[in-house]
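Risk mitigation, structural track. In case the binding assays with 1-O-phosphono-alpha-D-ribofuranose fail to produce interpretable data, a predicted complex structure has been prepared as a fallback.
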Amino acid sequence: MVVDSFGAGGARDAAAFGDEGADTMGHIAQATPGWKIPVLMKLGLGSLRPLAHQTPDPAPVGRYGFLNEASAGKDTMTGHWEMMGLKIDTPFQTFGHFPPALIEALERETGRRVIGNRPASGTQILEELAPEEIATGHMIVYTSADSVLQICGNEETFGLQELYRCCEIARRLTMKPEWKVGRVIARPYVGKKPGEFVRTANRRDYALKPFGHTVLDSLKDAGFEVISVGKIRDIFDGEGITEAIHSDSSVQGMEQTIDLTKRDFTGLVFTNLVDFDAKWGHRRNVPGYAREVEAFDERLGELMQALRPDDLLLVTADHGNDPTWTGTDHTRERVPLLAWSPSMKQGGPLPEQDTFAAIGRLVAENFGVPVPEMAELKTQPAIEL
Ligand SMILES: O=P(O)(O)O[C@H]1O[C@H](CO)[C@@H](O)[C@H]1O
Ligand SMILES: [Mn+2]
Ligand SMILES: [Mn+2]
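Fallback model:
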């Protein structure tokens, strides 16, 4: 279960990313006296690291540790791919502005003029440019510090299918090596005038295929179920996934995960909860982020009640997104790993890991499929649960 962007601070290489001192959960805790996260505390989050205004549980039931990211990136794809055993040494390409030749090709093939074409916050650029898009039928294209080409489309005037069509064209064009972005993202929204624009859950991500074999592929090949909840399917472009469940929100993603405990199957449920990142982290909204964690914590308790003795719960994050930080982008941080099973005898610390792939190794070992061949993994103290 990936709490998207719930970083734990303290990455050794944070300075190289301009993020020294960034600490998503630490800064939220500081700003939030009375933050109610009893289940996370029971699992051992407060024992992993001090959190302002929180008292560590005297006898945490979970195992808890830090994971460092080995790859050269702090985006969602890099984080998730590394979890499943791929190290990304060359960061995905980012752009300040997309080159004229790409924009011209996009305009020619979609039949629409491009406006924007710069890095922006997705909600701010709607305030600025959505009225023009609605009035003229031009198309807002923007990017960020991530390797993304994002296209906005008003669901009523532009149309959802038309937005997807334009994104498919953009994806095809950006497969060209010099234009290659990690993801093209469709950003549908509703609303007629500034102050009213709201993005909808019909977002769609067109990602590159993972650059190699992942633990998800190993599981699928060995006949296990790999059930995606939320945007996991998109992040892996469907590779290694046997079933995908779309979520409209992170709370719904939790409910869908809880529902899956009632089903009989053997395999992995891989859940991504994106609201923490998309609705609050990038928006630098601390109270919103804090409340979303509270809503998560409540359902995490329900999920734990529903698990069976041979289930294993892993809670982690894919990067940081400190809502108190400058700018609107992700932050390079360590992420937490919280592990719990009803059959676990006792909680306690886990050795800190040099790579998120420690998760892939745990999952692979759990199901008896091949462990990823990543150099960083071989020198790591084993996580034994
Ligand atoms: O500002 P919005 O559109 O939410 O963009 C955010 O979402 C994209 C994908 O994670 C990244 O580009 C990030 O900056
Ligand atoms: Mn993410
Ligand atoms: Mn993000």
